[in-house]
Amino acid sequence: MNSSEPVPSGKTVYLKDYAPPSYIIEKTELDVDIYKGETFVLARLQFQCLDERPQALTLDGEALELLDIAIDGKALDSTQYRCDHRGLTLHNPPERFVLTTRVRILPEQNTSLEGLYRSRTIYCTQCEAEGFRKITYYLDRPDVMSDFITRVSADKNECPILLSNGNKIDGGDLDGGRHFATWHDPHKKPCYLFALVAGDLAKVEDRFRTASGREVTLQIFVEEKDLDKCDHAMSSLKNAMRWDEQVYGREYDLDIFMIVAVDDFNMGAMENKGLNIFNTSCVLAKPETTTDAGFQRVEGVVAHEYFHNWSGNRVTCRDWFQLSLKEGFTVFRDAEFSADMGSRTVKRVEDVAVLRTLQFAEDAGPMAHPIRPASYMEISNFYTLTIYEKGAEVVRMLANLLGPADFRKATDLYFERHDGQAVTTEEFVQAMEDASGRDLTQFKRWYNQAGTPRLSVTDEYDQEQRRYSLTIRQSTPATPECAEKLAFHIPVAMGLLGEAGELALKLADESLDDLPEDNTHRVLELTETEQTFVFTDIPEKPVPSLLRGFSAPVKLDYQYSRADLATLALHDSDGFNRYEACQKLALATIQDAMLAYQQDTLAEFVPDSTLVQVYRLLLEDNSLDQAMLALMLNLPSEAYIAEEQEVIDPVAIHFARRQVAAYVGSELAELFRLRVSAYDPTREYRAQSDDIALRSMKNAALGYLMLLPTAEDLHLCLNQLARANNMTDEMAALTALVCCEDNTAQEQARDALTAFYQKWQDEPLVVNQWLALQARNPIPGALERVQALLQHPAYDGNNPNKIRSVISVFCNNNPLNFHTGTADEPDAGYRFLAEQILQLDSKNPQIAARLITPLTRWRRYTGDRGQAMRLQLQRLADQPGLSPDSYEIVSKSLN
Ligand code: B3K
Ligand code: ZN
Q1: Could you identify which of 130, 167, 493, 768 might form a hypothetical disulfide with 805, taking C-beta atoms 3.0 to 4.6 angstroms apart as the criterion?
Q2: Whose C-alpha lies nearest to ligand 1, atom 10?
Q3: Which residue from 88, 52, 95, 103 is spatially nearest to 72, judged by alpha carbons?
Q4: Any transmembrane segments, and where (predicted)?
Q5: Which of 125, 192, 270, 297 to mutate to test the pocket of ligand 1 (most atoms within 8 A of CB)?
Q6: Which ligand 1 atom sits closest to the C-alpha of 268?
Q7: Are the CB atoms for 570 and 617 separated by under 8 Å?
């Protein structure tokens, strides 16, 4: 009865086919007995038919070996059920019954990292979305919620720690050196939130007193060697618990909250009820090994998973089409938390940068889908930037349209109305409507239309009438699911800048009595394809500050002059738009350089001076937050520049951007040098926003200096590398050195890379950073270097973090080398990627499918490149037995 044959490719699931389950599972009792090489799972499931009894009941099950099966204690004979590689069908089940099954599974051989598997010495689970079916036969769908009792047993020496969801209710020794623990989760839950951990783990423990006075035990389980890296996650957890009480009125609901860190994990972390499982990269942090970005990521992910306890666990999804119900909302919640913990504008700028490079590209590509998709082949492919980041933007727009008081009323209503239920995005929006009285009918189009709307804005100033009008047109390009888009409801936050500052605003149809207190700011609500907004009593022709705070996930076109952009960069009261003006100015400058590159005149190209003038004034303004300053001085990434081009020329982008960067670096060298030399690399490290800000600006300055370094600059860099007491500064110096084209620097870089590895070889998370730096280093020859890294003892082709650090980073973050290959074979980068995908596809299809992304963009590249990329996609498509995960992405990309 072995049932592990591959699943056939290409079956599409549609939202319109959703039907409620015919049975529920009231109670789930599991005995999981772990032995070396094999595990036995005994499941006792209490089924209850919901309405009309169907002829047959099919349970999901994959890679299970069925050993025993009984209904109400009576063994079934082979005419009463059927078992195949997709599941188990019971013919004629009774209305109410207990099904007992016993299966054998092989966690040690489970390389998909889904279901029960072994990561180094730890047995752990990952069930979302459809991994529970690899543990036992079940109704593996989120609208079946059950009471779980889990008894785990294992060898006491190998696995002294045995964990599952909820509270521990029993435990003790067994014969043969084994022991057991029994856990009961008092909250009904879908099986995707099930978790189990067994291994030799050390723990850090703390306590939290909830607002209503209950004591909660907090535990973080890690390998003994990592005990010194848990403090930051623990304090982030406590901050998140307090924040959710204060901002959303949500308390934790069990006596214990556990986090377990494992090395082999397909994503960042998982919100299993009471027992979160984390990728070590998202929980471990200490100054010597973790960069500031790493500290912030730990804080954000710990909070994200914790917040799921309400937005996801207490109120869960009816089906997987509703994924953004929990993910979009929870990303919005964690972003607001991080904004409150650090700098709000910095957090916003960072998130928007991700959204409009990566999510916009997704929305313009073959995998584009609405935040509530209408169909999918493999749900694992839909844990996307669209579901997460665009989903969060949609919740952000709702929060802004409702205002803080009504939004809080709405979330209270949502949590109270649907506590313990599995619901849809419709119900989320309904709560928003009911609490605020607003009609959100048109707004709901954000849930079922994909694509990034483009706003074209024109304006007119009538000096005589003192009237200023803004005309905004919206259009959304066709996406695979829909060619003709209906108009979106788009909030456009804005203000107007005059010579002396922000102008008072009055729209023609506003009465003087209802002008808001802050009269320099408005949110225009665009609901038509084209709308004109007229402002009266405007004394001069203003510069419009549009889409403040990035108030909607759209692209915005307005013909700003460089002088307008300089005005906004220096004087806008909206921090985000100051940053945005810098980006636009830099983009225009880089686009000039790209033109020069294409005309073969890049060497003589001198950039327009506005950019450097603005940067200089910003650097001299001591009132600016240093982290904001660093972001404003950061040229748009190559990915963002690419996203702004109709046809992408990665070579022109790289060299043009580099030329502008080198120009900025040399023009402002004195100011940059001052920043770097004034910094004491031995000052005490704190992972707090003002310190992070200082480091980010100083390291941005070092990066600029090291583009064309003087001997003094090189010395500053080496000094920082040698004396840094934290990974942020150490990695920044190493990066600047390694990516520097100067010959002396290159020699130093080789030694520095070797020394760095020797120093950190026992810290896998630092080694990952070391690998990633080499993979993204743009200096020619990267593909050969990457191929050598795959042979390095530090590389492990089964570990997702290592795969990401080398292969993903090379293919996504080193566009110059990925797209130019080697001297003899310009398509070598594409072939390399296809080979890596093929090697990985049968082992870990989820990770393999994710690697395909850069190839899916083939239509955006010029003739030869695009065709060479397409060829590799075709090669994947022709591979017999390709996983459903990869098949979906490849087939949709070729269509
Ligand atoms: N909910 C999980 C993601 C699960 C991905 C499964 N392929 C982590 C998170 O978003 O919090
Ligand atoms: Zn999540």
Answers
A1: 768
A2: 327
A3: 95
A4: none
A5: 270
A6: 8
A7: yes
Going by CA atoms, what residue is nearest to atom 9 of ligand 1?
270
Concatenating the DSSP letter of every residue in 141-195 gives STT-EEEEEEEEEEETTT--EEEESSEEEEEEE-GGGEEEEEEEEEEEEEGGG--
Write out the two tokens for 389.
């980041």
Q: Give the type of residue at 92.
A: N
CB 144 within 8 A of CB 24: yes
Q: CB under 6 Å to ligand 1: residues?
A: 128-129, 267, 269-271, 304-305, 308, 327, 380, 383
If residue 275 lies in a helix (H) or strand (E), which one and from where to where? strand 275-279
Three-class DSSP category at 279: strand
User: Which two structure tokens, joined as six digits, stand for 443?
Assistant: 């707004």
| Residue whose CA lies nearest to ligand 1 atom number 2 | 270
Between the CA of 382 and the centroid of ligand 2 the distance, in Å, is 12
Residue 796 near residue 769, CB atoms below 8 Å: no
Q: What CA–CA distance (Å, rounded) separates 770 from 776? A: 10
Which of 271, 297, 385, 846 is the best mutation target for the ligand 1 pocket, counting ligand atoms within 8 Å of the beta carbon and taking the most?
A: 271
SS3 state of residue 891: helix
| Integer Cα distance of 298 and 284 in angstroms | 7
pTM value > 0.90: yes
Written in H, E and C, the secondary structure of 386-426 is HHHHHHHHHHHHHHHHHCHHHHHHHHHHHHHHHCCCEECHH
DSSP β-ladder status, 196-199 and 122-126: antiparallel
Burial state string for 7-39 with b = 16 or more CB within 10 A and e = fewer than 16: eebeeeeebeeeeeebbbbeebbbbbbbeeeeb
Which candidate, 840, 826, 844, 853, places its Cα nearest to that of 879? Answer: 840
- Cis amide bond preceding 129, omega within 30: yes
Q: Which amino acid is at 663?
A: Y
| Ligand number, closest to the Cα atom of 128 | 1
Q: Is residue 305 annotated as a catalytic residue, yes or no?
A: yes
Among 62, 130, 305, 327, the one annotated catalytic: 305
d(CA 11, ligand 2 centre) in Å:
26
Distance 126 CA to ligand 2 centre (A): 13
